[in-house]
Design brief:
Elements lengths: L2 H8 L4 E3 L1 H7 L6 H11 L5 H18 L6 H11 L1 E13 L4 E6 L7 E3 L1 H6 L9 E9 L9 E8 L7 H7 L5 H11 L9 H8 L3 H4 L4 E6 L7 H6 L3 E5 L5 H4 L1 E4 L2 E4 L7 E5 L11 H13 L1 E4 L2 E4 L3 E7 L4 H7 L13 H4 L4 E4 L15 E3 L1 H11 L13 E2 L5 H18 L7 H25 L11 E3 L7 E2 L3 H5 L49 E5 L8 H9 L4 E5 L6 H17 L6 E6 L5 H19 L4 E6 L6 E4 L3 E5 L14 H4 L9 E7 L1
Parallel strand pairs: 7-14, 7-15, 8-11, 11-14, 21-22, 22-23
Antiparallel strand pairs: 1-16, 2-3, 2-5, 3-4, 5-6, 9-10, 12-13, 17-18, 18-19, 20-26, 21-24, 24-25, 25-26
Length: about 700
């Protein structure tokens, strides 16, 4: 059964085609979860006619009931003439102590001080948060003389699912494989799973951790247009997105209303997300906000007014980076773009997860799904319910971490692990391999924070943490490293005030280590020497890793060979033939090739027409290589393993053959240069006879 059919069958009545919200929304500043709530009432089906009819119904509701500020006076007139009218607007409630009643303010309709029943406020306390709640409201109008209050709230319903069956959701997980379940969640957040690799999916879903874990401290920085703030603005009515430059301590924590203390945003929302969390000219952060924030992030509590208050809201910081990752690694640190007042060890050490937003590609039209996913509000309610479930204790069943990690390191890894397990395996059924995939991701996400703290705050260097762990019962250590360091291994930080004397200066070399004819003046940055070490052993590469080339993998091992045999059963698709040509080009660029024999052994194609096309491609390569001095030939036989063998005795085992790269978009630098391409996960084993 196709995944889309599974989604419809398993979650009947709780799904919606995700592109429909975009069709309805247009330029309206209304969250996606509001639109999907309405679409779920009329379009939760795969019947094209029913969808079309339901879509028109939703458009009518939006057109007739959604309030645009520019039309507010016309709507007020309609309410007066009709006596009552239903509207969709953002509503905020406050307590009028003088009159001993709650009053409501309508953001777009422009009404204020409208009496609202205590029952509505008690049932929906977020109305009091100061940030408003989207509601469907029936407003009445009282005509006549001697009427003190003409506006009357007759019914009010927040735009969210009223109840869910959490156990039903958990039970449905067994209907899907892990890969399918991940894709269900990716569809639900509005993205197309086929446009993302598994690591990119993990990074995307990590944005949901603040919704499913209490007091989770999350930060993501990256280029513009990668969807960093989308899930915090559009997905859930339990979260609020605020502009980082507009946050004050009273608004966030406690404000004084006369002698009464009123909780701020953290008291009413599951998630408080700071958007545009970056340095901006003319905006200063008050010191009391930073101090209160640090205490809250560490202890879940804060001191304001007369007492100590506790809250469970997760804190999210999302912002744009100013420079590329290589630039930051060389010249500054990965927190360089956040407000200067927050670039301090005491604050950053409290971040549980630093999500690498730079690994997500800029969203384009084909990045968004046209398939079915769970109604956003339904998933939001599920995540809200799962916040009460704590799985941090499970981690000790799988990993024992190095004793150099601080308690904050341990806590960060535990909370990320707990959240990811609840997201991906809500029924608790996961393999050891799946558990360690989450552990590695959680550990890397915390290590990214700690690595930058060593640069920002010298005091952290006194007790460096080694991010490694052992599996219970094993004496072997598993080391964890961040992908950006693995991909940029040659980049060394520029150390301020470092001086290199002419005697210390290393000669300038090209990539092969050959001395340059025109050495430059001494620079502060020293480049490591490239040394050829033809060692036997295994090299493993991570999903998404960059900086890997055929030259780096094979060049030194093949430089003295007079005959090279490539065994790969699958050289069929156009990109696989391009890989072969790139491999031959690497040989031409790195060594003398006159008289070199290169043989390819592969499998025949079952389709005779396509097999004939393969022969044509191989013949084209064979004819082309003659001009370079390479004697190229090819053969067909039935086999499975992938190897490169040389007459010098080297046997290179290739888990993925030459097909080690993810597809690069046309007209990008990655399409032309291997070192800029993202890798698949693969290993290479070198042995010599």
């Amino acid at each position: 059964m196709e995944l889309q059919d599974k989604i419809l069958n398993s979650f009947c009545g709780k799904v919606v085609r995700k592109d429909l919200a975009f069709q309805v929304k247009g330029g309206l500043p209304v969250p996606t979860y509001v639109l999907e709530y309405l679409l779920g009432q009329y379009c939760a089906t795969d019947d094209p006619d029913a969808i079309e009819h339901g879509l028109e119904k939703v458009k009518d509701v939006i057109q007739n009931n959604y309030i645009r500020r520019s039309d507010s006076e016309m709507v007020k007139s309609k309410i007066k003439e009709l006596g009552r009218f239903r509207v969709i607007d953002k509503v905020t409630a406050t307590l009028n102590e003088r009159d001993d009643q709650y009053v409501a303010t309508f953001a777009n309709l422009g009404l204020s001080n409208v009496p609202i029943g205590s029952n509505y406020v008690v049932a929906n306390p977020k109305l009091l948060s100061g940030n408003g709640v989207w509601c469907i409201v029936t407003i009445g109008y009282l005509s006549g003389e001697d009427i003190k209050q003409r506006w009357d709230i007759q019914t009010l319903k927040p735009v969210q699912i009223s109840n869910i069956d959490l156990q039903e959701y958990i039970d449905k997980r067994k209907d899907f494989t892990t890969e399918e379940w991940i894709d269900v969640l990716i569809h639900t957040v509005g993205l197309e799973p086929s446009a993302l690799n598994r690591r990119e999916k993990f990074i995307t879903l990590a944005r949901l951790l603040a919704h499913i874990e209490n007091n989770f401290n999350f930060m993501e920085l990256g280029p513009k247009g990668t969807g960093k703030s989308h899930v915090f603005q559009e997905l859930s009515p339990y979260g609020v997105l605020v502009s980082g430059g507009d946050v004050t301590s009273p608004r966030l924590f406690v404000r004084m209303s006369g002698k009464k203390e009123e909780l701020g945003l953290v008291g009413y929302w599951d998630v408080v997300a700071w958007d545009e969390f970056e340095q901006q000219k003319g905006r200063n952060v008050e010191a009391v906000l930073i101090d209160t924030m640090q205490n809250y992030l560490a202890n879940k509590s804060f001191n304001r007014g007369k007492g100590t208050h506790e809250a469970s809201a997760s804190m999210v910081f999302v912002g744009n980076t100013k420079h590329t990752v290589p630039y930051m690694l060389r010249n500054s640190h990965l927190f360089e773009s956040i407000p200067t007042s927050f670039i301090k060890g005491a604050f950053l050490d409290r971040i549980h997860l630093y999500n690498p937003g730079w690994e997500i590609r800029m969203l384009k039209k084909d990045s968004f799904t046209k398939g079915y996913g769970l109604i956003s509000d339904y998933l939001a309610a599920i995540l809200h319910a799962l916040r009460d479930k704590d799985l941090t204790g499970m981690l000790k069943q799988y990993a024992i971490f190095d004793g150099s990690l601080s308690e904050r390191d341990h806590n960060a890894i535990r909370k990320t692990f707990s959240g990811m397990v609840k997201l991906l395996y809500p029924d608790g059924n996961m393999t050891d391999e799946e558990a360690y995939e989450i552990i590695d991701f959680a550990t890397e996400s915390r290590k990214r924070v700690k690595d930058q703290l060593y640069i920002i705050d010298e005091t952290f260097k006194a007790e460096p943490a080694v991010f490694r762990y052992q599996k219970p019962g094993s004496e072997d250590w598993i080391n964890v490293e961040t992908l950006e360091k693995v991909s940029n291994v040659l980049i060394q930080p520029i150390i301020e005030n470092e001086k290199i004397t002419p005697q210390e200066e290393e000669p300038q070399t090209d990539f092969n280590g050959t001395p340059s004819e025109n050495p430059q003046e001494p620079t502060r940055q020293r480049r490591p020497r490239i040394q050829s070490q033809l060692a036997q052993g295994r090299r493993s590469f991570r999903l998404g890793q960059t900086g890997v080339t055929y030259k780096d993998l094979f060049g030194e091992y093949l430089k003295d060979a007079k005959e090279i045999i490539i065994e790969d059963p699958y050289i069929r698709a156009p990109h696989q033939f391009r890989n072969l040509v790139d491999f031959l080009g690497m040989l031409i660029d790195t060594r003398p090739v006159d008289g070199l024999k290169v043989k390819v052994i592969t499998k025949e194609h079952d389709d005779l027409e396509k097999h004939a096309g393969m022969i044509d491609n191989f013949d084209t390569i064979k004819d082309d290589m003659v001009g370079y001095g390479i004697e190229f030939d090819y053969f067909f036989r039935d086999f499975h393993d992938r190897f490169i063998k040389t007459d010098t005795g080297w046997n290179i085992s290739l888990g993925s053959g030459l097909d080690i790269y993810e597809k690069a978009e046309n007209y990008t630098l990655a399409s032309a240069r291997q070192d800029r391409r993202k890798c698949r996960e693969f290993s290479v084993i070198y042995t010599k006879e």
